[in-house]
Amino acid sequence: MRHAHAVDSVRSAEAALMATLPPGTLMRRAAAGLAAACGGVLDGGVYGRRVVVLAGSGDNGGDALYAGARLAGRGAGVTAVTLDPDRAHPDGLAALRRAGGRITGPDHAPAALARADLVLDGITGIGGKGGLRPRAAELAHAARAASASGAVVVAVDLPSGVDADTGETPGEAFRADATVTFGTYKPGLLVDPAAEYAGALRLVDIGLGPYLPEPELEALQHEDVARLLPVPRGESDKYRRGVVGVVAGSQRYPGAAVLAVGGALRGGAGAVRYVGPAGDAVIGRYPETLVSAGPPAKAGRVQAWVIGPGLGDDHLARQSVDEVLACDVPVLIDADALRLADRERVRARRAPTLLTPHAGEAAALLDVAREEVERARLSHVRRLAAAYRATVLLKGSTTLVAEEGAPARVNPTGTAWLATAGSGDVLSGLTGSLLAAGLSARDAGSVGAYLHGLAARHTRHPFGAHEIADRVPYVWHSVHPRA
Ligand SMILES: NC(=O)C1=CN([C@@H]2O[C@H](COP(=O)(O)OP(=O)(O)OC[C@H]3O[C@@H](n4cnc5c(N)ncnc54)[C@H](O)[C@@H]3O)[C@@H](O)[C@H]2O)[C@@H](O)CC1
Ligand SMILES: [K+]
């Protein structure tokens, strides 16, 4: 599991750890890890390379200056550009001077950057507030130009200008090829739009672990998913493995039913029951489906329902949503059903409910503009989970799963190629199937998103949504070869 902690948690853990150590120990640990990582990103090593350290006035600048000193000690030509010469970290400056580095002001930044092989962004870390101020923004521009002519930009702790806690980019920010972060990941490194500014991530252990509280955000890794995947046992039969009911499709959109069933057949449930008017299309493609024309209440027992893809919004659709919400089994609500599901009825349910909106649907449910949700995905998915007292999976560039009282999850496997018609229908079927197989709503959402993203990454693009469903068994085996 990859964990991310908010600034307040990092600060209190740092204070507790620092109280046990001689002054300056943490910064030296951070700088040592940073310098080592810089050696790793420079092809051909550090010796003789031109390094520019951009140093702000806080401890982030201090880290960068100490790392610059280490690189100078290994034979790099290091120039530090201080944003404000009178306020830069004095001990960091002294260390760099001793190691033979040069120190200069912002006026000389363009010339220094034009020749740089490596740029260290040490303007702001977790102490940064808002978008970069004008002088820092100019340095970010100059660093971008250097990057375009081949310099590697490494952000210290965070790309300066991104919000560590929320993943927002309120104004100008650095764009890094890699970010070396200290002690723990920060939510902003994992959530778009900020995550896009961070490049490849490297975590340096500075000993914070024992002092950190529960994370604000976590990302499943292969081994976590392998542990959660449902595996049939010797005594399993199709009912014990779970039956997932899919209420989807309409005369107008029969394909959504086929795609949702295609996802559901690959999610580990023992059987898929389809309810709706697209039974012929579903059977034509997947003859193993149990088909009934409806309504859901008469379809037979299921362990979880998926409702919504291509459903439409006529009175039959409304009735189906009401019937499904009245069942005492987990329900996944997607697409058209999101609009039709009464908030109070969802809040009153005892069995788990999982909503799977994209940004536009989430915006409509919260009565805000879509751009608002895209700008601050983490806070909006949390608001929605609280408003519906449900688990919410917010689809998009970084898919998030939120539930009150537990760390949010961010999916690490997404790809922009998933922005294709029908891809959400496959995800809802796949995730509902995991629910029917017994996973909690939070685990089903995060494992579903993980497999879905991985399947897309292992499918040659451009692809159609049905190909993602076809690819799920392959990635399931890559995650858990024996399952
Ligand atoms: N506290 C600790 O024990 C450790 C801290 N570390 C480093 O210290 C950093 C935090 O240091 P600080 O608390 O000093 O804060 P930062 O250095 O992150 O930022 C504070 C400085 O940035 C300026 N600033 C804030 N917002 C700005 C904006 N929008 N545009 C331009 N300038 C802006 C402030 O005026 C101040 O000078 C971490 O990110 C990490 O890099 C590491 O050395 C590890 C140990
Ligand atoms: K930084």
Written overview of the protein:
- The protein has 483 residues and is of the alpha/beta class.
- An 11-stranded mixed sheet has the order 1-9-18-17-16-15-14-13-10-11-12, with helices on both faces. Strands 4-3-2-5-6-7-8 form a 7-stranded parallel sheet.
- α16 crosses α18, α19 packs across α20 and α20 packs across α21.
- The protein starts with a strand and ends with a helix.
- Bound molecules: ligand NAX and potassium ion (K).
- Ligand NAX binds next to α1, α2 and α3.
- The site of potassium ion (K) has 11 residues, from β5 and β6.
In short:
With 483 residues, this protein is an alpha/beta fold. It has two domains: 2-218, YjeF N-terminal domain (Rossmann fold); 222-479, Ribokinase (UDP-N-acetylmuramoyl-L-alanine:D-glutamate ligase, 3-Layer(aba) Sandwich), CATH 3.40.1190.20. It has 21 helices and 18 strands.
- Uncertain regions: pLDDT < 50 for 5+ in a row? none
CATH H-level superfamily title of the largest domain: Ribokinase
State the distance separating the first and last CA atoms. Answer: 20 Å
The coarse silhouette is elongated
Q: Structural class given helices, strands, pairing?
A: alpha/beta
Proportion in helices: 40-55%
The total number of structural domains is 2
Most strands sheet: 11 strands, mixed
Protein topology:
Elements: E1 2-4, H1 7-18, H2 25-41, E2 50-55, H3 59-73, E3 77-82, H4 90-98, E4 102-104, H5 109-114, E5 118-122, H6 134-148, E6 152-156, E7 178-182, H7 187-190, H8 195-198, E8 200-204, E9 217-219, H9 222-228, H10 238-241, E10 243-247, H11 254-265, E11 271-275, H12 279-285, E12 290-292, E13 304-307, H13 315-325, E14 331-333, H14 336-340, H15 343-348, E15 353-355, H16 359-366, H17 370-375, H18 377-388, E16 391-394, E17 400-402, E18 408-410, H19 423-436, H20 441-457, H21 465-479
Helix pairs in contact: 2-3, 3-4, 11-12, 11-19, 16-18, 19-20, 19-21, 20-21
Bound molecules: ligand NAX and potassium ion (K).
Ligand NAX binds at residues 14, 18, 26-27, 30, 56-61, 63, 124-130, 132-133, 136, 156-157, 182, 206.
